[in-house]
Amino acid sequence: MYRGHTIGVIVPAYNEAERVGDVLATMPAFVDRIYAVDDCSTDDTWAIIQEHAAASRQAADEDTAPSGERVQASVPDGGTVVGSEIVPIRHAENQGAGGALRTGYVHARDDGVDIAVTMDADGQMDPDQLSALLDPIADGDADYAKGNRLADRVSRREMPPFRLFGNWLLTQLTKIASGYWRLQDPQNGYTAISHEALSAVDIESLPDDHDYPNDLLVRLNVARMRVADVSMPAVYDDEESTIRYSTFVPVTSVTLLRGFVRRMRAQFAVDRRHPAVLCYAAGTAALVATAAIATVGVANAVAGDPSVREPVAAALTLLASASFLLVATRVDARDNADLGVRR
Questions:
Q1: Which is it for strands 7-13 and 115-118: parallel, antiparallel or unpaired?
Q2: Contact 34, 27 (CB under 8 A)
């Protein structure tokens, strides 16, 4: 328990036999329950999770020695499990990063855990930083907290350049889709969510793939939940990313677009004259008109009948589109400013 709140940590794992044991063994003592979700691994991940779960059960059974001293159950890698119950869960079929996380979230919600944390099994997330992640929720300032590796210059330099650029681009797109305009590093998997927020976002329909954090942020905004960015150092070793960019990019793009439309529909349902919604719609319509006018101009030029009318008209509609979209983003950022928390 942390500051009067029960804590459940979800550890999704796929072929992490070399690291998952260390993650489970070094969990802070205030963690009440660990949901170790093996996503149908093909190595010894499941066996290691089971060993640690057995050790946690032994520690619970032998909680107090006759002398009144705490008994610590040992685990195969030399660590100890003290107090935290490990719940081993195994998928019969691989469901992806989002699917494994979804399973843990459902268990944590149904168990009534006050704050559910996600911590990857690859050792990239420092357990010593967990209290900093929990504080915004424990203080009542936020409903969801996530790590941010981009807040610190040193951490940005440690991130590989390709990841840094991709993260920056995803940050900009996710800001637009989710409405959390102060957000950075949306793909950070070190997160904490309150029971109230977890119960409000229909977690059963979370996507299976690595686009789950982007989708979750949209759901949180629709539910008007406050999100805190917590500065965290980046930790990189020799682990390999499981993201396949050939599928991640198109899938995430569709998720972001769908999420943006869902958020606009939710705002429109509340206020049919919402200025951000109207400006986004007008800007998009003007952009479509620009493309149509430009197409006509190109077709006329190819047919040997060039004219300045189409280029001028396209330039004017493009300018109108940019103006509408700029106003939309400004209004959107203003209306959602109270939902973004920086720590």
A1: parallel
A2: yes
